[in-house]
């Protein structure tokens, strides 16, 4: 169990770094969505499937959608 | 400050933070080593007391059912706020905008996944108090299944599958239904949200008393709330993109 936890924790850390280093907004949404997917795996590894299920939909689908719409509107107003 | 000084400062700070984090990680209790008294009592007693194999569901819909009602009403109010803000500048009677996806591969892939996701969502709701999952999780999966209709089909398909009038009704019925179940318990037993229909066998669909009812009320409310939210945002997205066309 411990190697698995260590692997996914490191992957989450790398994902967070990728999110912080992305500057293009649209790309940022995609990267943060992938980062959320890593978090979902982390929750499953830590045996919290209930949290993982909500995170899966809210983080990888709902939140990016709202961000995409906001970016689109912002660019349309320029 | 020059770039070099700032980098040096960051280096020192990052090393210090890393050292502190490593120190704290070595001091963490072992995996599965849990000392919460309340959680232990629940794990021991909930399966017999409430006939549920998912103790999380027993907590969410029974022991702490009142908290869940508050959360549901928060979601209800938040989505109503979004709808009020976004719907107001648009004309209600305007035709539904069009934005069909042209790629056959994407359509075939998305539509088949929409069906599978819908079944998965229903399964997660139905077994919410037996296996991990529940009304909230299943509700958002259901909403995302219909969202796939937009991603791989068109906004018209999404709107067709989730008419606003139906969503408004479902959201209200879900949130209101939860409160009504609580009130029935109050009238019958003198305790708000008291578990009413006892019995059933833990691990089976017919178990948990009124937990399944609250579970389904939550699922309906959450699915409708997310579909309303997605719908409002999608319309914001599509209208400036394609404009409204009469069809």
Structural domain tally of chain B:
1
Taken as a percent bin, the fraction of beta residues of chain A is under 5%
Span of the ends, CA to CA of chain B: 62 Å
**Rounded mean pLDDT score of chain B:** 86
What is the element string of chain B, with H for helices and E for strands?
HHHHHHHHH
Distance between the termini of chain A: 51 Å
Specify Rg of chain B, calculated over alpha carbons: 24 Å
Our count of helices of chain A gives 3
What does this entry look like structurally?
- The complex is a heterodimer of chains A (78) and B (247).
- Chain A is mainly α and 78 residues long.
- Chain A has helices spanning 2-21, 25-45, 49-77.
- The longest helix of chain A is centred in the C-terminal third of the chain and has 29 residues, at 49-77.
- Chain A starts with a helix and ends with a helix.
- In chain B, helix 8 runs antiparallel to helix 9 (211-242).
- Chain B contains 9 helices and no strands.
- The A-B interface holds A 1-2, 5, 49-50, 53-54, 57-58, 61-62, 65-66, 68-69, 72-73, 76 and B 31, 56, 124, 132-134, 136-137, 140-141, 143-144, 147, 226, 229-230, 233-234, 236-237, 240-241.
Features:
heterodimer; A: 78 residues; mainly alpha; 3 helices; B: 247 residues; 9 helices
Present the secondary structure layout.
The complex is a heterodimer of chains A (78) and B (247).
Chain A: H1 2-21, H2 25-45, H3 49-77
Helix pairs in contact in A: 1-2, 2-3
Chain B: H1 3-26, H2 37-50, H3 55-63, H4 65-87, H5 104-126, H6 135-152, H7 155-161, H8 164-189, H9 211-242
